[in-house]
Amino acid sequence: MVHDEQCFTPRSVRIVTPSLQENASHSSPSLTRRTLPDSIYFLDDSGNSDVSLFGFIRVPWIEGWREADAAWATFLKNLQVSPHFSYTHGYPLHAVDLVAGRGRLLHPEAGTAPTVLQKSAAASIVLQGLKVLSQVPRLAVGSVYRRGASREDLYADLVEMVNSRHAEAGSWCQFIVDGNGTERALRAAHRQLPADRRHVLGDPLLVPADRIPLLQAADFVAHAAYQSLVRHPRRAFMWDWYPRFFPEAGALMNLGRLH
């Protein structure tokens, strides 16, 4: 996992930071005096019945988010002039559907099957998106996985590991996760952190990916990492995408149980 020590907020999303009143039972004295994170993590998960995986994007607050958001916005704007499909602003992009040739982007009319060229162009959206992310200054990516673990257990240990690293560095961070707001187990992972050594601010901000474009970017990262791990034969063209564009991230981290 890349961990440098060092984000622009979309108008429709408010970053929730702890206050003395609402986090008194979950925060240390030093934390309650802290109002803004040093870093923001955008996370999405991937996996199957045998393996759970989280991929994430990490940017410094505030300028790092602004840079990454602007780069991704330009990438999405360029998709609108593709001759192979009709992309409209705000359409949710999911890597697993794009590389499989599924979804309304490739099926604008019922009964119309996409051509081989259209399928290739759709898969290349993920490829180009990863390339864009790899060129954003101060943006880092990472991924963790575990076989035979639930998504919730893996997330809890990821939060604990990130918290420990920020505690050692004396910095703070916040998590933004693709979700609908009902994932109680993810909130519990934050609230179980030790109060006197907590450097992950507040609960995770659980937001549908279509509201924050960089969560869709995190989806690209997670699926590329997943394919580099499981190496599905039908996705052989993706096997090297994650290490090719993010060599600094190193190998995927097999995060063992911390307890």
Structure description:
The chain is α/β, with parallel strands linked by helices. It is built from eight helices and six strands. A six-stranded mixed β-sheet has the order 5-4-1-2-3-6. α2 runs antiparallel to α4, α4 crosses α7 and α5 runs parallel beside α6. It is globular and about 60 Å long. The chain starts with 28 loop residues before the first helix and ends in a 5-residue tail after the last strand. The N terminus is likely disordered.
Descriptive labels:
disordered N terminus, 259 residues, 8 helices
The average pLDDT score comes to 85
DSSP strand tally: 6
Structural class: alpha/beta
- The tally of helices reads 8
Quote the beta fraction. 5-15%
- Order of strands across the biggest sheet? 5-4-1-2-3-6
Spans of 5+ residues with little confidence (pLDDT < 50)?
1-32
Helicity, as a percent range = 25-40%
Task: Compute the separation of the termini in Å.
Answer: 20 Å
Largest sheet features? 6 strands, mixed
Order of helices and strands, N to C? HEEHHHEHEHEHHE
Brief summary:
With 259 residues, the protein is of the alpha/beta class. It has 8 helices and 6 strands.
How does the SSE layout of this entry go?
Layout: H1 29-32, E1 39-47, E2 51-60, H2 63-79, H3 95-100, H4 116-134, E3 140-147, H5 151-169, E4 173-178, H6 184-191, E5 205-207, H7 213-230, H8 241-245, E6 253-254
Parallel strand pairs: 1-4, 3-6, 4-5
Antiparallel strand pairs: 1-2, 2-3
